Structure formats: structure tokens, C-alpha cells
Amino acid sequence: MLHDNIRNIGNMIIMTGDFNIRDSDWDPNVHHHLIHIEDLMFIADCLDLELATPINPGPTRFADNQQDSNSVLDLVFMNPNNSGFNKHILKLEIYLPSDHVPLFIKVSIKEENIDFTF
């Protein structure tokens, strides 16, 4: 059922945001996998998207106290055939006042004519 609902979304170019999932697949400071990653990766796979790696990997969220560690929570999933795949940038110098680093992404979108009738 979930698979059919995801496929009804249509063509997806990018899926990005703060996923709040700490996982060793994208954060070298984490040494475990959470069960939530299976759902997230299943959804991305159904949409023909893959996890993209930034040009300058690093934490995307900075801890607000010393008991927590900085982490990678903001992710970009793109179609690997898109020219912007693996080319997004973490803009570390402009993250204040947020505790998250802005991600700058260039997405190529091709022009397409769609025939339709009323």
C-alpha cells in the first residue's frame, strides 16, 4: 500500500530537509543504524532518488550544548542522473542564527511540453 501511494507522487527531482535521523550512512560520528533509515531509504528508492553527498561534507546541525555532538541531519536525495547530483554545498559561514547549516543546491529542470485536453 505504501509503495503504491509513493508511486502516485509522480516524477520527483529532489527530496531534501531536516530528517532528524542520525545514522552512520551519512554521519561518521554515529556508529549505528536506526530503524527509521529503512523507511527513508525505501521511500527514496521508490522515487528513484539516491542520497547525494555535499561537495564539502560535515555537520549540518550544530549542538546548542556541550553534552550533544554536532550531527548530520539535513539530507539531499536526488535523481542521480540530474547534473546537480553530489554537487550541493554546505554554507557553514551563514548558519547563524539557526543551528542548521543552509544547503545550496542547483537543480537542473528540463523544459517539457505536455499535451492535454479539457
Account of the 3D structure:
The protein is an alpha+beta fold and 118 residues long. It has a single domain (1-111), classed as Deoxyribonuclease I, Chain A (4-Layer Sandwich), CATH 3.60.10. 14% of the residues lie in helices and 14% in strands. The protein has helices at residues 2-7, 36-46, and strands spanning 14-18, 50-51, 74-78, 89-90, 103-104. The strands form 2 sheets. A 3-stranded antiparallel β-sheet has the order 1-3-2, covered by helices on one side. The protein has a two-stranded antiparallel sheet with strand order 4-5. The protein is globular, with a radius of gyration of 16 Å. The relative contact order is 0.21. The mean pLDDT is 84.
Structural features:
118 residues, alpha+beta, Deoxyribonuclease I, Chain A, three-stranded antiparallel sheet, two-stranded antiparallel sheet, 2 helices, 5 strands, 14% helix, globular
List the helices and strands and how they pair.
Blueprint: H1 2-7, E1 14-18, H2 36-46, E2 50-51, E3 74-78, E4 89-90, E5 103-104
Antiparallel strand pairs: 1-3, 2-3, 4-5
Q: Would you kindly provide a brief summary of this structure?
A:
The chain contains 2 helices and 5 strands. It is α+β, with helices and mostly antiparallel strands.
CATH topology-level fold name: Deoxyribonuclease I, Chain A
Average pLDDT number: 84
As a whole number of angstroms, the C-alpha radius of gyration is 16 Å
**Termini separation:** 31 Å
Beta-strand fraction estimate = 5-15%
Helix content: 10-25%
- The succession of helices and strands, N to C, reads HEHEEEE
* Shape field: globular
**CATH architectural group:** 4-Layer Sandwich
The biggest beta sheet is recorded as:
3 strands, antiparallel
Number of helices: 2
Number of domains: 1
Number of separate strands: 5
Find the CATH superfamily.
Endonuclease/exonuclease/phosphatase
> In order across it, which strands form the biggest sheet?
1-3-2
Structural class by helix and strand composition? alpha+beta
Low-confidence sequence ranges: none
Instruction: Provide the CATH top-level class.
Output: Alpha Beta
